[in-house]
TrEMBL record, chain A:
Record-listed 4-aspartylphosphate modification sites: D52
SUPFAM superfamilies to which the protein is assigned, alphabetical: CheY-like (SSF52172)
Keyword hit for Transcription: no
Highest taxon of the lineage: Bacteria
A matching Pfam family: Response_reg
SMART domains, A to Z: REC
Coiled-coil region list: none
Name by which UniProt lists this protein: Response regulatory domain-containing protein
Organism: Archangium violaceum Cb vi76
Gene3D superfamilies: 3.40.50.2300
Classification via InterPro entries: Bact_response_regulator, CheY-like_superfamily, Sig_transdc_resp-reg_receiver
Domain Response regulatory: 3-115
Higher taxonomy: Bacteria, Pseudomonadati, Myxococcota, Myxococcia, Myxococcales
Record's keyword terms, sorted: Phosphoprotein
């Protein structure tokens, strides 16, 4: 079973993304900020990280940069999500970007593509 | 590295609407409900919530090829609800179950709480590929909530999920406080009310909140007909910025009565509104019909919009004094629109009238005779709205370049001239007054022009005659002067009254003030 880490500070979005991914058969863990995500990643390496950009304590972008510098985490695929598109000058360490509000199909397609699964997990 | 599939969407694409298909609701919402938005619909039993919610579903399926899920959280059976709905024209049983799917969530929320209910919703909406979702009976869900916080989280979660699906959602409940937790969370709050105003039962719709968009505030009258709900936005806010433009070139629109047209310097200015006031029987209706017949004779289209006399009576009355009304009605030059003496809604009447006029050729000069303002007043649930309503209506008619004559009735026995709607005299360009005088056991009619904005007019009083030979206005003021200089008196005037009989002292009416200004000979008012 494919595992996903959902990193999102907005509780309702975190829950709904996690719920629909579980409904699809993924195993899902959740975190509320970038720092907690890094701690979790050091213990359990998921197949995909679905991460919000704007979060308290450590932003998604900062957490992503940290991941890319960390051996073992540098290869974990990341799907970023945000209300605004990232700056063009920002290093593109992510595998897919979802602009909020996005639709369910867009989320599922991105997760399936990035995790290398065609269809359900 | 793959790129985003959602980048680059512009604002318009992020804010698409779903049109309700309910007459004028989209106008109130400035385009409809937002796609993927979540809305609260509240109201007491009998206010039309279930009809509105089902009408939204059926219209969504029919007009947008959508798919709907209607979930009830009440113990009431679906069969009963569907049986009631089957009498309404919008309801199409053939939509069930493929496109319109009814389920109950009562057992799920009762046994599994919000997580159980949420799971059912997720599964059902995805399986049915729903684009419109209704939960009817949210107060029932709230009863199973362990805390207000849990309920808030449920609504938040529902909002996040339906937004992710792009599924527009309606949460239906009984009346709640405006500050209820649900109303704070949702994108919009619509309230239906049902109350008694005097002997009348009045349903109204109010939008309390609509995130990210303008909307028409305040209460709007609602009718439930065999076609479902029809909403009538308040006329005075509907036409805050009328879009139509009048013809630049003004012409005169006569009555076909030589002497009266001379007094009016050729006729009423096109695109203007005239109040034709007088006591019952003074000849207002016949004079208004003269105005239409003369227009028809010149090839102009005319509409009679009346409340008192049905078309056959009107035709008979006109033909009786030699007015060939029937001929022009038959050839379609004059249309008689009669409102039977039932309970009407003032805004609905205005909509009917304006929609009829809009449907006609805009290039043509048109005449309209409204008989009369009292019909609108009688339909008003809130009488204090009438002056603003009449102002908005006449303004809209002006913008459509319709030349309007509207009667307003004075009391039959009244020593002073007081308009029932004094403000009417301010919103119209011209005022014509018809009245009675008695002289030696004979009743005479007098006509005078009280006001004519931006135009020359004859301020003299003229005798106005109605006979089998036709309608006629005397060619000078002398006959009127003769009548008045005899022992002419107001019908109930003349004799001294006892203290008890004396009428309540009133402030001088608008007309009285105007009469004070008038003088013999040519006048010009600015």
């Amino acid at each position: 079973m494919r595992t996903i880490l959902v990193v999102e500070d907005e509780f309702d979005v975190q829950q709904v993304v996690a719920d629909v991914l579980r409904d699809e058969g993924y195993e899902v863990a959740v975190c509320g900020n970038g720092r907690d995500a890094l701690q979790s990643l050091r213990v359990h390496r998921p197949d995909v990280v679905v991460m919000d950009v704007m979060m308290p304590i450590l932003s998604g972008m900062q957490a992503l940069e940290e991941m890319r510098k960390t051996p073992g985490l540098d290869g974990v695929p990341v799907i970023l999500m945000s209300e605004t598109a990232p700056r063009a000058s920002a290093p593109r360490h992510w595998q897919a970007f979802l602009k909020k509000p996005f639709r369910l199909e867009q989320l599922l397609d991105a997760v399936a593509r990035v995790s290398g699964v065609a269809g359900r997990a | 590295m793959s790129e985003s599939e959602t980048e680059g969407t512009d604002k318009a694409a992020r804010d698409p609407r779903i049109q309700s298909g309910i007459p004028r609701l989209d106008f109130i919402l400035k385009g409809g409900l937002k796609l993927g938005g979540i809305y609260a619909l509240m109201g007491p039993p009998g206010s039309g919530k279930t009809i509105l919610a089902n009408q939204l579903c059926c219209n969504h399926i029919q007009k947008q090829e959508g798919r709907c899920v209607y979930m009830t959280l009440l113990i009431e059976s679906h069969a009963k609800m569907l049986s009631h709905l089957s009498t309404l024209s919008f309801f199409k049983p053939e939509f069930i179950p493929e496109r319109l799917y009814y389920i109950s969530g009562y057992q799920q929320v009762r046994e599994g709480g919000f997580s159980g209910l949420m799971e059912l919703i997720r599964r059902t909406l995805r399986d049915r590929q729903a684009t419109f979702f209704v939960i009817d009976g949210m107060e029932s869900a709230e009863q199973f909530s362990t805390s207000p916080q849990a309920y808030r989280e449920f609504v938040h979660g529902l909002q996040a999920f339906t937004n992710l699906l792009g599924c527009t959602t309606l949460l239906v409940s009984n009346v709640r406080e405006r500050t209820h937790v649900e109303n704070a969370v949702v994108d919009g709050v619509i309230e239906l009310s049902d109350k008694l105003v005097g002997p009348r039962a009045v349903r109204e719709l109010t939008v309390h909140k609509f995130r990210g968009s303008d909307y028409l505030r305040g209460r709007h009258e609602v009718e439930i007909t065999g076609d479902g709900l029809a909403i009538h936005p308040r006329t005075e806010i509907q036409f805050a910025r009328p879009p139509e433009q009048a013809h630049e070139q003004r012409i005169r629109m006569g009555f076909g009565l030589k002497r009266l047209d001379e007094m009016l310097d050729g006729g009423l200015p096109s695109g203007s509104t005239t109040a034709l006031i007088g006591a019952p029987g003074t000849g207002k209706t016949l004079l208004g019909l003269c105005f239409l017949v003369e227009g028809a004779r010149q090839g102009q289209h005319g509409t009679y919009f009346g409340f008192y006399e049905p078309p056959p009576r009107l035709i008979e009355k006109a033909e009786d004094v030699g007015l060939p009304l029937n001929r022009y009605v038959k050839d379609g030059r004059i249309e008689l629109v009669w409102q039977p003496p039932l309970e009407h809604f003032m805004d609905s009447l205005a909509e009917q009238l304006l929609e009829k006029l809009r449907a006609e050729d805009k290039k043509e000069r048109r005449r309209l005779f409204i008989d009369g303002a009292e019909g609108f007043r009688a339909a008003a649930v809130y009488p204090d709205r009438v002056p603003r309503f009449l102002s908005a209506l006449t303004n809209q008619l002006r913008m459509q370049d319709v030349t309007t004559v509207m009667t307003d009735e004075l009391e039959l026995f009244q020593p002073e001239l007081n308009l029932p709607t004094p403000e009417l005299a301010n919103v119209v360009e011209s005022v014509l007054l018809l009245r009675y005088v008695e002289l030696r056991s004979q009743i005479y009619r007098l006509l005078s022009i009280m006001k004519m904005r931006e135009s020359r007019y004859d301020t003299s009083l003229r005798e106005f005659r109605i006979s089998r030979e036709g309608i006629d206005v005397a060619d000078s003021f002398e006959s009127a002067e003769a009548i008045l200089s005899g022992h002419g008196r107001i019908r109930n005037g003349g004799k001294k009254k006892t203290k008890a009989e004396k009428p309540r002292k009133k402030k001088p009416g608008v007309l009285k003030k105007m009469l004070g200004r008038g003088g013999r000979g040519g006048g010009r008012e600015r």
